[in-house]
Specification:
alpha/beta, 11% strand, 10 helices, 8 strands, TIM Barrel, 8-stranded parallel β-sheet, 273 residues
Length: 273
Amino acid sequence: MTCIDIHTHAFPDHVAPRAMEKLSAKADWRAVGDGSIAGLLRSMDAAGIHRSAVCAIATKPGQVEGITKWLSTLVRQHGDRIIPFSSLHPKDDDPVGWVRRIAEAQMRGIKLHPMYQDFVVDSPSLMPIYETAAEYHLPVALHCGSDIGFKNNPIPDRAAPKRLAGLADALPQLRLLCTHMGGWSMWDEVEEHLLGKNVFLETSFTSAFLPPERLADMIRKHGSEKVCFGTDWPWNDQAAERAIFAGLGFSEDDVQNIEYRSALRLLGEKNEG
């Protein structure tokens, strides 16, 4: 059996130390890894994880071209291990055109972050981006809920589960990946508005904040076939997270869904297992 981590982060070697120092100070959360590709691959090997999605975030306009080129290099070097999720900024010139170029560069998805990029998930200005991603069958991974690094968010509900549910209803053809089980620290609202919707959820930053019984119940209510294993490495240990989910009492079928089959569905890949 293989395992896919659908949510990790890494940086070019010359950027990683500075990026990790800055992000660690902002989030007040101790990282377990160094943010390098070599560090990610070592972590994957130790955890028995075959593939990881590396999710970039364009924190300002003008970064998308460099991000996509770097991820393309990673694919040439580690194409059997790395799943590239590029990013664009909503305020980029021609963001819809960049969605097309990201797809043409054979990126596997787009990562957007409402706090770092200062947008509201269901804003009309984002709809052309989502619609074009859906046209190209390109998954969109959204940071959902609150964020540990943005304690004074001026728009607290900018990534709220209720907004995500409305987005899913408006664009059912969009392959939407809602991180942190649909809304970090907003799980009451996830249960009310998002569970059972036509979205994929991923598991990162939940095991330390939700009782195991509640987390397992949420996964069952949503359907394990729409839940992907994710860690947010280098912020959480891949081996430890995998062990936690192995201990939640799921059936073998549910485990296989969470560990790799749901990710394959999200990515549009055939399940060979």
